[in-house]
Amino acid sequence: MATREQTYSPPDSHEQAFMRVLTRAYALNWETIAYAVILILALATRFADLGTRVMSHDESLHTYYSWRLSEFGEFSHTPLMHGPLLFHMTALSYFLFGDTDFTSRIYPALLGVGIVMFPALFRRWLGRVGAVITAVLLLISPQLLYYSRYIRHDIPTIFFALIILYAMLRYLDNDRPRRAVWLWVLAGALLGMLASKEVAFIYIALFGSFMTLFWVMRLLQDIGVQRRPAQDGRWHAPRLQMVLGHVILFGLVLVIAVPLGEFIRHAIRASLWVPEGWWFDLPLFLAIYVPLALSGVVRNRLAGPGQSRNGAALMLMRGLSNGKSAFMIIVAGLVIGVLVSLLIVCVLDVIKPDTVWTTRSVMSEYDQTYGVNASKEYAISVAFDSAMFVRMVTWIGVPVLLLLFVVFLTAVFRFPGYLPLPWREILLVILIALVTVSVLVLFERRSFVEETTTQPFAADPTAAAQIDDGQYENTPIVLAWIAGTLITLIVLGTRYLTHWWDFLNRQPLFDVLIVIGTLILPWLAAFPLYWAGYNLEDYNPNSVAGRDTLEATLPAVVPFIMVSAAVGTSWNWKRWLPAAAVFIGLFALFFTTVFSNQYGLVTGMIGSLGYWLEQQEVRRGSQPQYYYVLTQLPVYEFLPLIGASLAGIFSMSSLWGWRRERAEALREARLAEAHAADTLTLDANPAEVLDADVIAPESDVLDEDALGGDEVDDRRRLFGLPARLAAPFDAAEESARRARDPEWLGEFPFLALVGYWGVAILLSLTLAGEKMPWLTTHLTVPLILATGWWLGKVVTGIHWRAMTTGDWLILVAAFPLAFLALAQVVTAIWGTGGPFRGREIEDLVASGSWLAALLILLGVLYLVGRFGRRMGLGQLGRMAIVSGAVLLSILTARTAYMASFINYDYATEFLVYAHAGPAIKTVLNEINHIAEITNEDSNMRIVFDDESSWPYTWYFRDYPNYGFLRGEAGSVEPSSLDGAKTVVVGSKKAGDVRRILGDRYYEFGYIRLWWPMQEYFNLTYDRVANVFSLDADNIASKYYRQGMFDIWWNRDYTTYGQAMCIEGKQARCEDEAAWGQTESEQENYRAACERAVVAECRSDNRFAVNNWPVSDRMYFFVDKQIAAQVWDAGIGAATVNIREPEYPEDRVYQDMQAESVIGQTVGLSGPRGIDVGPDGLIYVTDADLNRIVVMDSDGTLVRTIGDGSDSVDAAALLRQPWGIDVGPDGTLYVADTWNNRVAVFNAGGELLRAWGHEGIPAQDPSPDAFWGPRDIALGPDGNVYVADTGGKRIRVYTPEGDFLRDIGAGGAGPGQLDEPVGLAFNPVSGDLYVAEAWNKRIQVFDLNGQPLHEWPVNMWFQNRQSFNRPYIDFSPDGTLLYVTDMDDRHRIVAYNLEGVPMLSFNQPDDLEAGELGVRSPAGLAVDETGRIFVVDAEQDRVFVFPPPGLSGSVLPLAPQEGDALPEATAGAAEPDVPEATEVLTEEPVEEPAEDATEEAAG
After folding, report:
1. What does 1131-1177 look like in DSSP terms, one character per residue?
2. What does the pLDDT read at residue 24?
3. Bigger pLDDT: 1144 vs 45
4. How many whole angstroms separate alpha carbon 1236 and alpha carbon 1260?
5. How far is the C-alpha of 1371 from the C-alpha of 1420, rounded, in Å?
6. Nearest of 1280, 1239, 1235 to residue 1253 by alpha carbon
7. 20, 565, 906, 1237: which has the highest count of C-beta atoms within 10 A?
8. For the chain, percent helix, then strand, then coil, each to nearest 5?
């Protein structure tokens, strides 16, 4: 048979290498398929409908300036908008794909996909399974998904932080360490992070501190620690070892003594005087440190001659000698300490120390009557609330004890009975945690600035304005030069005269620290500039402050650059210079906008950190300290929160497992040695076996005597080191040491860094002044890394080959069913649908459902127990964990989908913060449609104002023929609206625009901007206890719990709003229960009342989306002629009816000409209250000038009161008075607002009496405490009623100042008050009417303080940001209540007694004559003829309007003869109530439905 030989040419080596790469890259296995699926899903979830959501306020800033950069090349970096990288990348996206909402978000979306895929690079540290699980968790994370579709800087910052972490790990890689390319990558990523957002400084601090700790431990490991020999005898530790031990001991005691002294002072100052500051802390420090420092001497004395014992300092050094164990224990202590600190910080924000230790000044009786003398120093009285102290200790102590129990329990489970527990290590963990807690809590308390929300509107009128006088203290810059020069000389000297740098440079981690440290060091030049007094927010060369800052920057930066260059070149100039070139090149490229803005070098290097320093006490958003712990993480990132917690427990168990292995190895070694020497019996004391004094190899110990004989023999002998410590790093030697010594601290502990990163950044952002939902993304990533690693361990620990029977299928189905049944059982008890609560149909159904869930749970547990025994407890536990993780993953994915694709721009999501409402695009689409129909396209003239400018500056970028309105109300010129087809303005200018446009335009109102529900603000112990109350009489508590679950589950706020309503009304049920004569009748009355309250509150819609309580409005005006064209084109007339003015107050508006305007000549400044006296004189509280102005009817000044012009009595001086009422005898009653008192003057201006002092109800229960009282009124009973605005109550006194009672308390329910201001008594019925600014309603009380009814006012939407407040007064016949609308429409509204608007009016503007209507109506008074006096707080004048000539449609009812007026001791007449038998026969009232309403989707 013929054959033919075939020749074969093998590929060359390069081709073989290429093929191997392809084979490795494209080999299909489960891992490759998993990552491919994850990548597809990441792309789909990050890019689907990316342009649908409306741009938020911040997003529109980023998009607009990016568009300016793309279109015109205009961009100047400013720290106010964070780093420049986002703008450059977005501009590039516009250049490539055009400028749309979709393309604006491509950059963060791409990096969001990159973050999801990053775990593939961390496979070595997370494990193959753990990396895949981590990628899945990153994919479904609600926070990461939402903000990957959001043009902000946070996702890029996280992306570059992960690159830094990966580059560092690769540089430290054992196989190929110290590859220079990874330092260059690290430098570029470091700049990318700094060019994204200033939170990069937190990452640098966290990563740097952890790496420094690891590096120091490696240095100690290199040097070695001598141990006391095992044999008895006198032994002297090396001097260096002794000094280091005492330095560490000194620092530990110092950081313990200072916080301990602070706590002791707070604890005992209520009963014992203690000195402040170091006068107390120093003796305490010495009392702790001296015994510990001398403990070695004392122990040696007690040991007797010839023996040696270690003191505390040497014991610390001995503990640090076991490198790996010591490092793990230190990290564990730090993590536990940070967690405890976080707990304490959050608890102290709920149970504030001021509620435990209440400090008050002790004033004389005269001062209490006539006011505080500012020049007098008062003694301090401290009241201690022991009950609140116990609650605070309980809230802190129970979780801390639980955490310590976990530490102890994991050690117990890991250590067998024949080995003693590692008490020394346990105590060391606790000690480190204690030190950490002391430092962090003290720092938080010293730096914490509590946001006050009770007085956001009135500044101190006596405070001087902050003026930049150009005077700077340049001493910090001089000191920076001195320090920089000395450090540079020391660095260069040690580099050329010693081997120190060779020793320090032995560790590759030192290279990373040098690169990061030297590159970031020049940015710290912001500190001396800040301390010198320069303005680090102004870099405008045309301003004096900006020019001074620019000129001072170079002298401040040079010493830092000098030190960086000296350190970098001394370390390794060949590696440092390329890394610095990468960093500086990218820095100059982006911060100067491609070298077009030289000042960007300053704003980048100085402004980034400088802006943070300037804003360090600004608490943007005013979020509480528990914001992340109680809202963001539990609502969105519950899976990584739970998973990371369990991963921490697993890590603690692993630590004790490692210690057990070492203890067993040492025990075996000692037993073998003893057996060989026949000196140790098998029943030796195990505690001696675990003594760590004999475990260090002699080769690791630095013998101090050998220092002089083993020096490197060259000219650099100063402070010489042994040759072995100056030798270069040897990777082979390092590997050998790790293999030989189990305690050798070798490979960089990635997972320990992740744990430290997770807890440290959570605490850092909790302590930061700004807390925002997008910052939660930075918390999410480390928690997911820890969770993914732990779940990977769990999954790989399952014996999958043993799953060959059908048992595992039963368990796979059983575990999810068990979790669901358990959830049903628990949540039913938690909320309103609990079992065994009655015999009504709904109650029976709820009981049956609960019993069914319980039976299913018991049955599933039986199946698990029966079939799980064959698998073993460990396998069963792992299966349960995996099942629970899968269920939580499904819930997390559902939450992410709801947030990003359903509720993405609704404030029902806590992620939607200061976000534009969907109406922004509704209006935009209408405008675009009008432009298209009218064929004007982008040439159509539109006008918008500064309130609506963001996001409309971005959306109107294609309309060059636009008009822009800026300034305050009253500044709108008619010419600015000429030719405008559409006008969009906020509430501030809506009144001006409405009056100018008249009836020629249609007007539509929308929500422009909104925030999430803020009921989690200002939590107190009572509020929390109320939610978890199990008291059967507390109807609201179960609705609160159910409402919280509904919010978590479906973002449905209906039940929570009902709970708030029920809480306000449930108090009446106790009164109605008292109608019963027997206990049975009382229960029947109570049950009937509870059903009635629930039924009344079923319709509560305070959290309806179309009436969202925390929102700003905008107004859209359309030319009627243009609208007619559009409607003729097919929109239809139905739209006209739908879009008529939406509020009844708007429909009854009419212009009314004032008959006179007075007060222009008397010099008013910020007037507020007004009243007309019986003598016809007009009394006005001139708040900013701290006086009462008395005018006649023509506006002629008669006299002033309270400003010192008529009296030398300092007690008569007023401080920003707001409210005033004139009695029938001419006596003046004044709400002296910021003296926090009531001042009473006679008609001549002489002070008769005064009462009151500053006090918040939660802290000061005294009967004369006020917090910013805003109005005052004399009642028909002759008593004085004071609107304690900040105290959220009405305080009632006799005319002499004797306290009678309080009406109302903080809240939104009936009878509760929130920011009460205007007070008025109906002249016929005598009922009290109260204007509640923040509840946006008028509430009516009888004279006993019982709420009668209320009605909402469709006004005051801007009131929380306003300097003004609403006032009210009655028409003479009592049928009309006049109310001021000072923020939105600048008008006065007249309501009838049922709350129906009858009239709203203002004087029209006459701009040609220069006469404006009322711009900010404040005080309001109606004289006996019906004339209406309105104070204009903005224009400093009083408008006098004629009687409107109408009356209300409802007549007031005068009190019947015999009706009792309220008295302090009067008893109420027993009401006429139905018999108890009637109550029993009533039809049952349905409970509120549990199903979510569809209202939130509207």
Report:
1. I-THHHHHTS-SSHHHHTEEE---SEEE-TTTT--SEEEEEE-TTS-
2. 54
3. 45
4. 13
5. 11
6. 1235
7. 1237
8. 55, 10, 35
